[in-house]
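Final report, Chapter 2: Outcomes

The project's central promise was a pipeline that accepts a single protein chain and returns its three-dimensional structure in a standardized token representation, suitable for archiving and comparison. That pipeline is now operational. To close this chapter, we reproduce one record exactly as it appears in the project archive, with the input sequence first and the structure output second.
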Amino acid sequence: DVYKRQPYPLVSHGRMFLITGELMNAVDIYTGNFLWKIEMPMTQRVKWRYMDSRVYSRPYERNYIATPGTLYIIYEQEIHLISAASGEQKGVFTIPAELAATSPGAIWTEVRLAGDQLCCVVGNTLACLNRKTGKLLWQRNSVLDSTAYALNDEAVFGVDYTTPPGVYRGEETLQKKSILFRLDLETGAETWTTNVEHATVPEQNPKQRRPWLLPITPSVIYNAKHQKAIVVVNRMTYYAFHADDGTRAWDYQGDLSGNRYALHLAPMPLVADNVLFGSTADYKSTAVVLDVRTGKIIDDGTWLDYKRGCSRVIGNCNLLTYRNAATEVFDYQSKTRL
């Protein structure tokens, strides 16, 4: 049901995992046979899925992670380790005492895996755990309010940022500074750091206010083919850096003039091997496509001239898919959509 807050399904080694409300389901992708299902505890995070259907409700890193043998289901205070084959519970990770002590009441966010490392953000702390035992390996406190990050097999690319004062309230200044850095994944040692000057979040006045939303903050996407760390600001502005030394590669300033009152409707951009498929908060149009290597515009809205609906474009280097939620009528004589 697209009108619930369901995360997108995950596929790993022949199994598709789907969340439907409080149920976790597993399906064989080759035969369509149902494998198993379990009922999840009705935590606040699970309840939120029933409240709205927009794309901002569906991030993987706050819901679940799939590996060949284990499914990690993420709740506020716990991560449940589930057998991917049978659905049986294998273990539970709680927030390590060292993190809980410095961030009382904090919850698991931005949980991602690389090799045997499980990375996460708890409160204002970026941390790395052993994904099999839950043992804390290293931690790094943000020098600002909090941190967002991306991973490759050997490094963490993070951005420290200041949090806006509210979900829709604009910030007092027009510009602010975030800090981009690279850490060694195994040890947490810092390789380089650089400042990113960027626009603040503008005042927003949407038709429907959603008090459960989080403020819009910077995020990071890593492009492995061309080794770029891309900082995303206000969903539509992109700063690309060379992953090896942190030097600036290019930047693209998004146009917020027609979207500044609906930024929460804009999903994260899709970064494939060679292109960045941009984001827009307008259901009736598509966004710019950029060359990941140079930041130059490849297409300005003609690839998908009628992308509509409250879904987002997803895909890989070969295929883009999206949900078109509009009903269209095509007039043969005038060759136009009515």
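Archive annotation: The first helix runs from residue 44 to 48.
This record, like all others produced under the grant, will remain available to the consortium after the project formally closes.
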